[in-house]
Structures are given as C-alpha cells and as structure tokens.
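Running this now, will post back.
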Amino acid sequence: MTESRSIGEPDALLDASGLHCPLPLLKAKQKLASLEEGKLLEVRATDAGSWRDMASFTEQSAHTLEAREEREGVYYYWIRKAGVSAS
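Update: finished.
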C-alpha cells in the first residue's frame, strides 16, 4: 500500500507504533490540535486499521492527507492541519 509523493519535511512527528485502534487516530487528532494552521504532521502506526481510519478522518475534516504509505508493517501518514495553505 503506497500513496506517496514529495511533501517536504514534517513540522511534527507522532509515533503511534504499538497502539491499537482507535488510539493512533485519537493521538493524531490531539497532536493536530496543538499545531498551527498549515503545519504538517507525520504519523507512524503499526495498526492496519489506521489505513482506513486516517483516510476517513481527513475526508470528514478540513485537514488534508498529503500522503500515506506502508513500509514493512509500519504505516506512515502525512496530514496537513487545516488553515493556511502551505506553498
């Protein structure tokens, strides 16, 4: 599973490895709340359900899932906080 593209360096990192659903998503929401608008959050998770959860969350929110990929059982997500466009 890969849906990646060049997005630049993240402004914050959340390692949710080892956490089971729904904790990776809840931790990501908390971390996004602490970021300024337009900042990029990288989330790492090992729970396969996070693939669906992160996509659903960003589709239903104003945040943007910039990219996501799976490498050797680790799921990576890059989520841009809603607000100012990063150009």
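DSSP finds two helices and five strands in the chain. More later if anyone needs it.
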